[in-house]
Request: fold
Amino acid sequence: MHRLPLQRLFLRPNPSPSVSRIWLALTLLLSASYALPVLQQTLQPGYLVPNDARQHLFWMRRFLDGGLFPNDLIADYFQSLAPPGYRAFYWSFAQLGLDPLALARILPVILALFTTVMAFRLSLRLVPIPFAAFLASSLYLQNLWMRDDLVSATPRAFLSPLLLTVLYAIAAHRPRLMLLGLLGLGGFYPPYLLVAAGVLVLLSLQGEFPGSWTGLGLGLIVLMLFPYLLQSSEFGPTVTLAQAQDLPEFQPGGRTAYFAQDWGRFWLWGGRTGLQPPLDPPLLCSALLLPFLPQREPIPHLPLLQALLLSGLGLFFLAHDLAFRLHLPSRYSQHSLRVVFALGAAIALVLIVQFILDKSVVLCYVSLGLLLSYLVFYPQGLGNYPRTNLIVGNHPALYEFLQEQPPETRIASLALEANQLPTFSRRSLYVGYEYAIPFHRTYHQEIRRRAIALMEAHYSPDIQHLQQFLTEEAIDVLVIERGAFEPDYLERSWWTRSYPEISQTIQQQLQQGQIPALVEGERSCTRFDDGLFRVVEVDCLRSL
Reply:
């Protein structure tokens, strides 16, 4: 008799709607407990920005002020990369006067709760047991918060809720919702339309999804991807694998490290090249037991997970083969595997609990207590959870001084802090390590030229060389960090990772006692000094 409450609350399929709503409420409550610490961080006053938003969001201030970032190569490049739906989303809020960076502070929690609901509904379609949906959603969100996807507020922040929406619509046989979800994927994360297409084809071939609906979905996918096949980027063709092998940016430790020295890192754990199986939290590994566990009844929608797994893996290997025309291979595997592992682990855990219940009611109570305690307390034992990767600006006086300069001001700096200046100062940056993305050849060649030219002029002992550079490149101010003329400065500033030859040459010159002309110019032309950074006026340097 003690088995009945357990079965009714935890293991009974197709329960009353009230039971499902209770479990959904508990799932949202647990999800909120993961997300609220993020909100506490993102809403704190001061200068802060998600790590990748420095690339993908800073230029959106053009929506509020069209005069910002004029003739700015970096802003133009990252604006060109923004998917249309992503761009339209922030633009629409900007028309209401909401700063895109301010919206990015509250967006992660909203996306997390929406993701929770869709994960719950998808799992309930696969296995109509609310407790299984609770497990799947909680494990999925736990793993998701171990990365900075949601916090980034970049296109990949929208991928999880949109992908889950498409999968749910397929499982529920809701073609209109499926088409709407595909439109969202195409608007925010177009590459994943290929994974969705693979899922539709595989399910159709197995007779698990109506062919007419598959045709509608594939037709919409082709329409959304067709423009990408026709258009060519103004920033040049995509770099080839052979070309990448000769670039230091793609080597271990480089700006966009792709190649790895060992097989396991390259194929399994590499951030850009690896499968990245989601093995944390450890309960996700329960998914590996699913093929070996006896099932009392067949799981009707299990082919959906199998199709997602095969489609994601297929695109992963295809992206490796076509590198870099489909961008990075890990983008196709990690998100698919997260869904497969979370839902597979939930199903496996429910099967195990059912087996334990058949043996001992007491042991089942103990197992459920341990399982629930694990979900609640495991994240609290992690050092960096939830992961936010927020960049905090610690030099407000510098940012505010630069904000006071004319909108067309162009800043040049070798300091790592320069990576934050477009976001915090709202002024154009000549070149920055964070923005030296090497995937498009014309853009990369220009960024590389600028970086080398800046380093050469910055450390040149010839004042005329420095002045000629500043004039030709239309630099308005230089931001110089204390210690910038020490021999190991470029190495500490990471420039040596992508430009080792010029960095070593400059280091040798400084070690030999060669004094850069900028040292003297810095003393007489500084217009701002906070003890760590000096802003040097270029007009003054030209008159020396």
Remarks:
- Strands lie at 47-50, 390-393, 410-412, 428-429, 477-481, 526-529, 533-537.
- The radius of gyration is 27 Å.
